[in-house]
Amino acid sequence: MVQAWYMDESDEDQRKEHRLDPNQPVSPEELQALGVNSYKLDADNYESDPELAKIRQDHNYTFTDIITIHKDTLPNYEQKLKIFYEEHLHLDDEIRYILEGSGYFDVRDKQDRWIRIAMQKGDMITLPAGIYHRFTLDENNYVKAMRLFVGEPVWTPYNRPADDFEARTKYLQLLELKA
Fold first, then answer.
1. Domain 3-171 carries which CATH code?
2. 179 pLDDT more than 80
3. pLDDT tens-digit profile of 117-153?
4. Distance, CA of 149 to CA of 99 (rounded, Å)
5. Domain locations along the chain
6. Binding site as annotated, residues
């Protein structure tokens, strides 16, 4: 399963771990209370993995594509990394499955503190619509990820503040129910 921890306030390179000192880990249960779910899958056999097929069927993930984030493969690499790292939300769930490499998803907790989620090969994460988050590579500077969608793909990020969207309102209501 993914590892997660509360982040420090450092302005140092976004690709570093940014663990608080002392470290404050975040459990999978704490992530689930925020609506964040994770899975460990067989990335070497993703095309024929029955567990991935079941997850796709159970959640109606009908569309997938693969993105490689590396300076040699992604046009406007530095600009894209800056965009991915802007705090934003989506109106639909965000589902990412790491096929190669590694990176970080950062999400906000109920007190608006950043939690860093380390993702590596075989990790899949689902972020609920309306959660503020961001993504960055780690110091390896490479990730190949499958993006999964319900229906047609939507990549539109809404940078914070975006509290007036129905997805944000529903997400906050979900947090209240889980409290």
1. 2.60.120.10
2. no
3. 999 999 999 999 999 999 999 999 999 999 999 998 8
4. 16
5. 3-171
6. 88, 90, 94, 133
Q: How far apart are CA 173 and CA 37, in angstroms?
A: 18
Tell which residue, 97, 105, 104, has the closest CA to residue 46: 97
112 vs 34: CA distance, rounded Å: 11
pTM exceeds cut of 0.85: yes
Binding-site residues for Fe(2+), in ranges, read 88, 90, 94, 133
Strand, coil or helix: 159: strand
Taking a C-beta distance cutoff of 8 angstroms, is the pair 10, 21 a contact? no
Write the DSSP string, 58-90: HHT--EEEEEEESTTTSTTHHHHHHHHTS-EE-
Q: pLDDT tens for residues 5-43? A: 999 999 999 999 999 999 999 999 999 999 999 999 999
Question: Is the distance from CB of 4 to CB of 25 less than 8 angstroms?
Answer: yes
Annotated binding site for Ni(2+): 88, 90, 94, 133
Are 138 and 120 spatial neighbours (Cβ–Cβ below 8 Å)?
no
Residues with Cβ within 8 Å of 102's Cβ and at least 6 positions away in sequence, in order, are 118, 119, 120, 121, 137, 138, 140, 142, 143
